[in-house]
Each structure stands twice: as structure tokens, then as C-alpha cells.
Amino acid sequence: MKKGEYHLVVFVWVFNSRGELLLTKRSPEKRSYPNKWDPTGGAVLAGENSLQAVQRELFEETGIRAEQSEFEWIETYRRAGKNDICDIYFLRRDAETDELVMQEGETCGAMWVSRQELERMIAQDMVAKPDAFRYRQLQEKLAGYLK
């Protein structure tokens, strides 16, 4: 991209009724952070808006279908050192991990984690570094979602 150009990236943090966060495992084929755990996300495609992209990414990477009205926009930020503008959404959804459909080349596993489990995974370097950083920044906003 040229100087001053950006592309839009979306992330969705999915929480179940038990106050757990859905993490997916990045495929070992991924160039960045292979085999690390993170919330679902990806790039917005040409012609899509942010909501359309988050809806598509969630379905592609997990098989979870959600209406655009179900996503709660949390914040927009610019990733330091990158040409990315990122939108974060929260979604409440109960789903069994054995019913999720992983996207070949993108995701290879899924699990629900509590706050304590997520913090342990971050300490053990099991979570992609940008997502571990974002978790720390979202602490206040996560209060009503993650137990």
C-alpha cells in the first residue's frame, strides 16, 4: 500500500452465557502466529462494510451464523506500525465447540475459556501477541462479558 493508505480489519470477541470467550487456533500454515489462539477476525473485502466483513469472517472461520444486528461495535483503532484500521465487535452466542466448522488454512481448533484460563494462556505465550495486547486494553469493556 502507498503511504497514507489503510485497509480495514475486523475482530469479533464471542462470549457464551457462562461468561467464556471463544478462541480459535490459528492454522500451522498461517504466516503470522501459527498455532496460537485468538478471537476471530480478518480483512474487509472490497465492497464490504465492517459489519458485513465481521459476519462473513465469523461464519468462514467457525461456521457460526449471526445477524448484523447481533454484533455490538466496541471500538475502532489504528494498529501501531501497520496500515490497518481495526474494528472490534462483541457477540453473545452459545455454541458447542464440536459443532463449529474450522476454515482450512485459517483455523484448526476452538475452545471456550474463562478470564483466568485466558490470562494463563497469555502468560504461557499461547495467544497471538496482538490479541494478548488488545485483551489488556479491553479490560474495562470485558467486565460484563468475561468471567
List keywords for this structure.
single chain, alpha+beta, four-stranded mixed beta sheet, 147 residues, Nucleoside Triphosphate Pyrophosphohydrolase, 4 helices
Verbal overview:
There is one protein chain. The chain has 147 residues and is α+β, with helices and mostly antiparallel strands. It has one domain (7-140): Nucleoside Triphosphate Pyrophosphohydrolase (Alpha-Beta Complex), CATH 3.90.79.10. The protein is 24% helix and 30% strand. It is built from four helices and seven strands, in the order E-E-E-E-H-E-E-E-H-H-H. The strands form two sheets. The chain has a four-stranded mixed β-sheet with strand order 4-1-6-5, with helices on one face. Strands 3-2-7 form a three-stranded antiparallel β-sheet. Strand 5 and strand 6 form a beta hairpin. The longest helix has 13 residues, at 50-62. The radius of gyration is 14 Å and the shape is globular. The model has no long low-confidence stretch (mean pLDDT 95).
